[in-house]
Amino acid sequence: MRIPKLTIKLLLTIALVAPFAYADSFQNCVNNWVIEPGVYDSNGNYMKIDYGICFQKSYYIYVNGKPMYPWIFLMGVNTDPNERGGWRVTASGVNDRCGATMQDVRIDLLSNALYSGLLGVYYSPVPGRTIDDSSIRWQSFGVTIDLRRFGLSVSIEYKWQDMITKNETRVSSLTTSRTMWDRALATGGLYSDSAWAWKFGAAALVDVNAGSVRVVYAARTNYWKDQWPYPCTYMAYAYDVTWKV
Q1: pLDDT confidence of 3, banded at 50, 70, 90?
Q2: What are residue 113's DSSP bridge partners?
Q3: Residue 22: Cβ within 10 Å count
Q4: Whole-number Å distance between alpha carbons of 89 and 41
Q5: How large is the C-alpha radius of gyration of the chain?
Q6: What is the Cα–Cα distance from 121 to 193, expressed in whole angstroms?
Q7: Per-state percent for the chain, helix, strand, coil, to nearest 5
Q8: Environment class of residue 117 by beta-carbon count within 10 Å: exposed (0-12), middle (13-18) or buried (19+)?
Q9: How many helices (H) and strands (E) does the chain have?
Q10: Which own/partner pairs from 117-123 qualify as long-range (CB within 8 Å, at least 24 positions apart)?
Q11: pLDDT grade, residue 22 (50/70/90)?
Q12: Which terminus of the chain, N or C, has less C-beta within 10 A?
């Protein structure tokens, strides 16, 4: 897994646009989105990770006597199998023989920030089936931080839409430093030759006086070949990013 070291300077006046077919919406935070080039494996399968944050410095809460900003960390994962070569994305749920369509998708906080139950349900998508049929449609997702419980009459919010069919999500790790998902088509093979682009988000508390926050955005995408003996393969990639506070 290649993990390039990057330092991203946040510009309050610039919001980078995500390479998805819809417009995300956000309130009380500044959207910063980094678009990265995709990568191919030796079989011609493709994956791509984009990442970002929706940050703000107007509101903070105290945790153990320390002021903390609520921020929302975001990533998008794209997968596209080499259909001409007989490759398909996996498509029978998170327990597919070859692994979930997108597996071990994670946002790891390595310094100066933490995930906390103080923020309520701080991540999206949440576990379960999102729709229960085989049609393709747009589905809404989002992360909302309601600060009214802390005496502030505002919410910090980031919402997006993903195009999905029957879709299954498992949250495989929730700790103060890691949020990790397995997300999969659950169609019994339908649409398994298609490209998909899905987004993930999680809110965290960031130390006001930290200076920077280090985060790893990572994912694995799984594929199978429609030819005996139906082999499996996967791609895994990550970015190690430092955001300035």
Answers
A1: very low
A2: 206
A3: 13
A4: 14
A5: 18
A6: 33
A7: 5, 55, 40
A8: exposed
A9: 0, 19
A10: 118/61, 118/63, 118/205, 119/70, 119/145, 119/203, 119/204, 119/205, 120/144, 120/145, 120/146, 122/179, 122/202, 122/203, 122/204, 123/171, 123/174, 123/179, 123/200, 123/201, 123/202, 123/203
A11: low
A12: N
Are 186 and 167 in contact, with CB atoms under 8 Å apart? Answer: yes
Q: Tell me the residue type at 146.
A: D
- Is residue 21 scored above 70 in pLDDT? no
Q: 144-163 burial, b for 16+ CB within 10 Å, e for fewer?
A: bbebeeeebeeebbbbbbbb
- The pTM is what? 0.89
Cβ(61)–Cβ(185) under 8 Å?
Answer: no
User: Position of tokens 């910063």?
Assistant: 32
Residue type at position 63: V
Place of tokens 């906080």: 109
